[in-house]
Every structure is written in structure tokens, then in C-alpha cells.
Specification:
The chain has a single domain, classed as Glutaredoxin (3-Layer(aba) Sandwich), CATH 3.40.30. It contains four helices and six strands. Helix content is 28%, strand content 15%.
């Protein structure tokens, strides 16, 4: 079974998600998308797999979102995808792909429902929040 995480190691949510996957006994393929950006075709397929809109995938905090005026409704999905390809930091993370589907794992514990073995012990996130899986 292959699990892939589109990961930003500078992001606490992404690090927490990666650790939860590992605690569930899986070693995912880790793609640091800022180092290895997705091409347009792959990005479009990934967004489609999540079932989210392009706008729902856009990240605002810590990105050029505001300076590019991406909240403006004038931008089509195609244009927004072009912006993400040009500025990969605009893609919200982490996105995890498993045989059960693809998700934007925010909050990080959302990933548990998409893992084959979602039973993990209590997990303490980096911010101290305790996740008690059911």
C-alpha cells in the first residue's frame, strides 16, 4: 500500500500528520512540494482527488495570497492553479493520498479516517493538544 503526503517540514500540522501516519504503522512517500513542486497536471488531479475547490486548497497565511489579490473573484480556477504552480507555497498542506482517498489533513487528525490502520495510541501534537483516536 502506498500513502503519499505532500509535506512542508516547516508546518506543524504537516509534521503532526506525518507522525500520525507513522504511528499507525505506515511509512509514507514524502513529497516536499516546496522542493519538488507539482506540475499543473498533477496539481489539477490532486485537487480533484480531494473533492475540494481550488479556492479551498489556497493557503493565505505566510504566502503571497494578499499581494497577488487572490481573494478577488476575478480569478478563474485555471488562473488560481497557475498561481499555485508558480508559487507552490500557495497550496495548503498537508495533502495525503491513501487508497481510501485524498484529503487536506487540517486538522492533522483527519488523516486517521483515511489510513488502513487508524488505531494509534493517544497522540500529543506539537502544540500540546492531545488526540485520543476512537
Amino acid at each position: 500500500m502506498t500513502i503519499t503526503i505532500y509535506h512542508n517540514p516547516m508546518c506543524g500540522t504537516s509534521r503532526n500528520t506525518l507522525e500520525m501516519i507513522r504511528q499507525a504503522g505506515e511509512e509514507p512517500k514524502v513529497i516536499e512540494y516546496l522542493e519538488t513542486p507539482l506540475n499543473r497536471e498533477k496539481l489539477v488531479a490532486l485537487i480533484k482527488a480531494t473533492g475540494l475547490s481550488v479556492r479551498e486548497i489556497l493557503r493565505q497565511k505566510g504566502t503571497p495570497y494578499d499581494s497577488l489579490d487572490l481573494g478577488n473573484e476575478k480569478w478563474s480556477d485555471d488562473a488560481l492553479i497557475d498561481f499555485i504552480v508558480e508559487h507552490p507555497i500557495l497550496m495548503n498542506r498537508p495533502i495525503v493520498v491513501t487508497p481510501k482517498g485524498a484529503i487536506l489533513s487540517r486538522p492533522s487528525e483527519k488523516v486517521l479516517d483515511f489510513l488502513p490502520n487508524h488505531t494509534i495510541a493517544s497522540f500529543t501534537k506539537e502544540d500540546g493538544e492531545i488526540v485520543k483516536p476512537s
